[in-house]
Amino acid sequence: MKDQKIQIRFFTIADWQKEEAYLKKMHAQGWKFTKISIPCIYHFAKCPPEDVTYQLDYNPEGIAHKEEYVRMFEDCGWEYLQDFAGYSYFRKADAKMQGKEEIFCDDESRLDMMKRVFAGRYFPLLIIVFLVIVPQIYFAISNDGGDAPILIILFSLILLLYIAVSISFIYRYLKLKDSLH
């Protein structure tokens, strides 16, 4: 039987909770996360099935001061795994936890992380959408070429995908923000 496993999974940058749940489920099935090499490619190593909590943090400032950042989490018992696409990956065996433990001490901290994701990822994507995608749709509509309908559909689908992901992220952000009040 193989000791290594590679799986392809897609998570948007706002789906860190789904990604955490996926990694936890894999560990419970006897596959411990070892790394993510390129977007969507997850590497696992065979291990005894165990309940382990995985947590992701998006903190580019923490990565800039990596040694202190990692030590802070390790002092609380979290194992640092890697950084990928702005996220830092941590895990901790549930048996070593006191209750439901998370790297975020409260919802305010989680809200701050969501703000960092928005500022670091969504805002730049918004600029790209308005500087690249929207003009391409306009040029495809005003173009009489034979490939214009295909380009209109392609760029419209990209725009709709971005809008759907953004609405999902904004909904989660507002829901968490409301829970604080």
Which structural traits does this protein have?
181 residues, alpha+beta, 2 domains, three-stranded antiparallel beta sheet, 6 strands, 54% helix, 20% strand
Task: Please describe what this structure looks like.
By secondary structure, this protein is an alpha+beta fold. It has two domains: 4-96, no CATH class; 107-180. The protein has five helices and six strands. A hairpin with a 4-residue loop joins strand 2 and strand 3. The longest helix has 36 residues, at 107-142. The protein is globular. The mean pLDDT is 85.
Describe what is shown at a glance.
With 181 residues, the chain is α+β, with helices and mostly antiparallel strands. The protein has 5 helices and 6 strands, in the order βαβββααββαα. A 3-stranded antiparallel beta sheet has the order 1-3-2.
Please render the helix and strand layout as text.
Elements: E1 4-8, H1 16-28, E2 31-36, E3 41-46, E4 52-58, H2 60-64, H3 66-75, E5 79-84, E6 87-93, H4 107-142, H5 148-180
Antiparallel strand pairs: 1-3, 2-3, 4-6, 5-6
